Amino acid sequence: MLMGDRSVQVRSESLAKLELAIGRFANRCGERMNAADNVIRRIDDSLLTRRRQLRRTVERLEDAIARARDDEDTGALEHRLDDAQTALQTVERHQHALDDAVERYRREARNLEHVTTGTTLAARAYLRGLIDDLAAYFAVRPDGMGGARERGAPVADCDGGVRDTRAAYDPTAFALPDGFRWVRIMEIDISELAGIRDASAFAKTPYAEMRRGFNVLRCEVLPRMNDAQNPARDDDFARHDAASGTPYEHGLQRVYEAFFGADAIRLERADDGVPFGVTNGRHRIKVAIDAGWDAVPATTGPDSR
Amino acid sequence: MSALGGVRDEVRSEWGRLRACWQSVRAQWTDEVADRFERDRWRRWEEATPAFLSALDDLDDVIAAALRDL
Fold first, then answer.
1. β-strand A266-268 against A277-280: which pairing, if any?
2. Which domain range does residue A57 map to?
3. What is the rounded average pLDDT for all residues in chain A?
4. Which residues of chain A does B65 touch, with a Cβ-Cβ cutoff of 8 Å?
């Protein structure tokens, strides 16, 4: 290997690490923000409950003092009333301080969330593009998947133009069949894809064929599924393939079934605070990331929502 | 441990890891593209994350004070 090639490979590997580190940071931030929201809710509820208790105590004591006979000693009641009023003021002060601090926290959390979703996706897509460019230029394959033509070269766009793979593609405007939803790549635990490092990991369906499948999904299958007059489903794609004389392995039905059939991408998570684990479809998710997709169509387990 | 201590420590530690990774990449990546990436993308994390951590610290102090009186 030439020295220049070695340097490019090192840089490709570093950029790939950075891309993964950015994804991991975004995932962890999302999880921790959910955890912080739970703490805030708990404290807010406790303060509210305490305020209600103290208000009731104050009202009860005020009422007792008002109803006391003229000759009755209300000193003890008044002392308790003072204590309750002081405690109520303290709780109200804490509540105001909490409201202010939460407002500032939420502002900064929204800002970071914006960075960790929008900017992260853009940055990761940008880094992917750089990695692809380096691999293409020096014919170095950092992860062994495909050559320059498959990974780094511009992808054909639906209108016959080319699409810059550095730009993230957001497919979520397309409606999905019942039982499916778009899941953002950022919501998925991509550390589970670490094992998919070379072409041999794509034994069942070759990498390039899966890339082509995503392009067909984007340009042909999803638009037909979203046709307002006649939303296409499995049988419609079968008829379309038969009419055009396209064999199953190259047709639309196969792509439809790969994403919406029995072998669809399946994701599960225990609760909202954690990323989705991948039950089925790790290779498709890897290809989606490489192709710059922001989200994948998936079924999510019964416990995920 | 304060109410939000775990959250704060984890975000801070993840942030430290990400920064270390960036610094290591930056040491080898010194062209114009790197400058542009740093200016247009990386800087947003550099601004947003410490501001978030600072707001989290303040919120944690307020919660700690409230818990003392509850």
1. antiparallel
2. 5-136
3. 81
4. 94, 97
Whether residue A296 sits in one domain with residue A156: yes
Most confident of A146-155, A233-242, A244-253: A233-242
Q: Is there a contact between A213 and A296 (Cβ–Cβ < 8 Å)?
A: no
More confident residue, A142 or B38: B38
- Whether A281 and A232 map to the same domain: the answer is yes
How many domains is chain B built from? 1
Q: Residue A152: pLDDT band by 50, 70, 90 thresholds?
A: very low
**pLDDT band of A28, cuts 50, 70, 90:** confident
If asked whether residues A229 and A129 sit together in one domain, one would say: no
Which range of residues forms the domain containing residue B20? 3-68
Verify whether the Cβ–Cβ distance A104 to B10 is below 8 Å: no
Residues A76 and A22 placed together within one structural domain of the fold: yes
**Interface contacts A/B by beta carbons within 8 Å:** 119
State which residue of chain A sits closest to B28, comparing Cα positions.
A11
The verdict on A108 touching B (C-beta cutoff 8 Å) is: yes
**A167/A119 same-domain check:** no
Residue B64 in contact with partner chain A when CB distance is under 8 A: no
Binning pLDDT at 50, 70 and 90, where does residue A11 land?
Answer: low
Cβ pair B18:A22 closer than 8 A: yes
Nearest CA in chain A to B47: A112
- The complex's ipTM works out to 0.93
Task: List the single residue in B28, B48, B67 with the smallest CB-CB distance to A112.
Answer: B48
**A158 and A124 within one domain:** no
A203 vs A213, residue with greater confidence? A213
Residue A21 and residue B67: Cβ atoms within 8 Å?
no
Interchain proximity B62–A97, CB inside 8 Å: yes
Are A256 and A129 in a shared domain? Answer: no
Query: What SS3 class is residue A277?
Result: strand
Whether residues A131 and A177 fall in one domain: no
DSSP assignment of chain B equals --TTHHHHHHHHHHHHHHHHHHHHHHHH--SHHHHHHIIIIIHHHHHHHHHHHHHHHHHHHHHHHHHHH-
